[in-house]
């Protein structure tokens, strides 16, 4: 699905990481961890075509991301659901409209029943008509997750999805992501929350990758 | 047909896509005001261009067919020379008509300088004969030679000296009118581009989100293009309506009789202003589309 082959990324003359290899197989569950500034968010951006690697090759669904034109990048993003820590909503649209936005930009009709089901799945039925600034941190994260999955993407990338929520809410979000993985979705979560990773390993077979010293390593039994 | 279908699609729009881009107050007002003001000016440029075009054509046609014979002679010979000149003209091939201006007509000609009650009969002013050529025209050199022999006090003025500069001036004015319209269109495009760039910059976060969820550049651009095109169309329609009304209310040529009062539209030319809002919308469409696609490319 997503393959990184000997990938390097430099920014402003400084190399953020190099010789990085990663394969996200269908239905796999990965955590990406590492210290702040190690490049977790950059790595995720490479995985959904927001950034282009300065070395090596990133293949998105078999295609070299460097060879994708702008429309193809947009089409590829419809196959990848992204959840950001800061959620990134359009504040003038309701929660329901924000969640349905991927369908809107793809020119697809939003089925009201499906949207209601999705809102119910993330527990935001009552908040459907509210504006994003009216939501709590946990509600925003769940809305972002609902938006990420409304197109039924094959891959879900989450960047610190539990960064702004309490333990209970982080468990609830994790449960949703695990449920998606059990439905066959490929999941990659970037987080520095070790307790979240430990909790997840009790529920799902997850590989933990650590980005450290400009290299990607498979984390050991210490997790 | 495909083009018309695309235009209709653009105008009808996608309500969902329109909702995604929030209205931006000051760029909306700027676009409306700019296109309205420019359309107002374009109406006058168009009226000037069409009026001077008519003027050039009329002067060219009228002056090409008329000329003036001026007879300067002592008072006791004036009538005889006038009759002789008329006889020469009557027998000249290519002259359709020739007539001597009477005292009232000569007084009217001098009235702008000397007032209405000038006693022309007591003044040693030349007798004027209006000569009208037929479609083929006459031999000017031959007529001059005959007049020199038979009417020594006659001078033939075929208006060439001042006809050509006048017609050229009118033609230049017509050209200036069209150039003005082009400049107005260019200025409108530049201002709408600035407004579109401001709107795009103000919506950078929105563009990021739209891209994140898989929006293509053309989808994002279309939301801005449609909005600016419709604003330009509306503003220009209002500006055109006010401009056309102002032209309509100008004093008529008949009432004032001056050159400038001839500024306006005649006949089917009144339909020309209808093209101004369409031109403004087209300029806005092209300007916004270019600005949006360029900005989106730069932001990626």
From TrEMBL, chain A:
Q: Which UniProt keywords apply?
A: ATP-binding, Nucleotide-binding
**GO molecular function, one example?**
ATP binding
The record, for SMART domains, names:
AAA (SM00382)
Keyword Nucleotide-binding listed? The answer is: yes
Which InterPro entries does the record match to this protein? AAA+_ATPase (IPR003593), ABC_transporter-like_ATP-bd (IPR003439), ABC_transporter-like_CS (IPR017871), ABC_transpr_LolD-like (IPR015854), P-loop_NTPase (IPR027417)
State a single Pfam family of this protein. Answer: ABC_tran
The leader peptide range reads: none
* Limits of the ABC transporter domain: 2-223
Q: What is this protein called?
A: ATP-binding cassette domain-containing protein
The source organism is Octadecabacter dasysiphoniae
Automatic annotation (TrEMBL), chain B:
Which Pfam families does UniProt cross-reference here? Answer: FtsX
Q: Does the keyword Signal apply?
A: no
Kindly give the InterPro entries that the UniProt entry links to this protein: ABC3_permease_C (IPR003838), FtsX (IPR004513)
Coiled-coil stretches are none
Where is this protein found? Answer: Cell membrane
Report the membrane topology from the UniProt record.
Multi-pass membrane protein
An example GO biological process term is: cell division
Which UniProt keywords are present, listed alphabetically? Cell cycle, Cell division, Cell membrane, Membrane, Transmembrane, Transmembrane helix
Q: Which residues cross the membrane?
A: 29-51, 175-200, 232-250, 270-288
Please, which domain of life does this record's source organism belong to? Bacteria
Q: Does the keyword Cell division apply?
A: yes
Domain named ABC3 transporter permease C-terminal: which ranges?
Answer: 179-288
The protein depicted here goes by the name Cell division protein FtsX
Q: Which organism is it from?
A: Octadecabacter dasysiphoniae
């Amino acid at each position: 699905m997503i393959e990184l082959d000997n990938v390097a990324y430099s920014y402003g003359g400084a190399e953020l990481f190099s010789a990085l290899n990663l394969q996200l197989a269908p239905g796999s569950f990965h955590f990406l961890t590492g210290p702040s500034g190690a490049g977790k968010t950059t790595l995720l951006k490479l995985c959904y075509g927001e950034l282009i690697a300065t070395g090596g090759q990133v293949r998105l669904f078999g295609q070299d991301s460097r060879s994708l034109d702008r429309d193809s990048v947009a089409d590829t993003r419809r196959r990848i659901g992204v959840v950001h820590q800061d959620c990134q909503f359009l504040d003038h649209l309701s929660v329901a409209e924000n969640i349905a936005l991927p369908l809107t930009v793809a020119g697809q009709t939003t089925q009201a029943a499906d949207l209601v089901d999705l809102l119910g799945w993330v527990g935001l039925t009552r908040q459907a008509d509210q504006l994003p600034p009216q939501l709590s941190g946990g509600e925003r994260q769940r809305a972002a997750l609902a938006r990420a999955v409304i197109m039924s993407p094959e891959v879900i990338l989450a960047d610190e999805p539990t960064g702004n929520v309490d333990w209970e809410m982080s468990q609830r979000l994790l449960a949703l992501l695990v449920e998606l993985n059990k439905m066959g979705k490929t999941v990659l979560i970037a987080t520095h929350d070790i307790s979240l990773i430990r909790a997840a390993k009790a529920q799902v077979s997850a590989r933990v990758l650590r980005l450290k010293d400009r290299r990607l390593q498979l984390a050991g039994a210490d997790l | 047909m495909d083009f018309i279908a695309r235009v209709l699609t653009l105008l009808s729009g996608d309500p969902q896509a329109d909702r995604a881009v929030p209205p931006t107050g000051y760029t909306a007002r700027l676009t409306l005001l700019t296109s309205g003001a420019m359309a107002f000016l374009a109406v006058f440029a168009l009226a000037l261009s069409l009026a001077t075009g008519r003027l050039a054509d009329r002067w060219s046609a009228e002056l090409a067919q008329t000329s003036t014979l001026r007879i300067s002679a002592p008072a006791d010979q004036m009538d005889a020379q006038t009759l002789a000149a008329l006889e020469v003209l009557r027998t000249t091939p290519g002259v359709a008509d020739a007539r001597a201006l009477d005292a009232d007509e000569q007084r009217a000609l001098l009235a702008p300088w000397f007032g209405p009650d000038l006693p022309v009969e007591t003044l040693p002013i030349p007798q004027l004969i209006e000569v009208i050529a037929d479609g083929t025209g006459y031999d000017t050199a031959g007529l001059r030679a005959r007049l020199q022999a038979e009417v020594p006090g006659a001078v033939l003025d075929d208006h060439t000296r001042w006809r050509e500069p006048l017609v050229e001036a009118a033609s230049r004015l017509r050209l200036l009118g069209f150039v003005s319209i082009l400049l107005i269109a260019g200025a409108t495009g530049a201002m709408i581009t600035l407004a579109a760039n401001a709107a795009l910059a103000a919506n950078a976060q929105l563009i990021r989100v739209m891209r994140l969820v898989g929006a293509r550049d053309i989808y994002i651009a279309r939301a801005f293009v449609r909005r600016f095109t419709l604003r330009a169309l509306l503003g220009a329609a209002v500006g055109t309506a006010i401009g056309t009304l102002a032209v309509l209310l100008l004093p008529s040529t008949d009432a004032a009789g001056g050159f400038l009062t001839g500024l306006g539209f005649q006949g089917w030319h009144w339909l020309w202003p209808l093209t101004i809002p369409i031109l403004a919308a087209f300029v806005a469409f092209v300007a916004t589309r270019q600005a949006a696609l360029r900005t989106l490319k730069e932001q990626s």
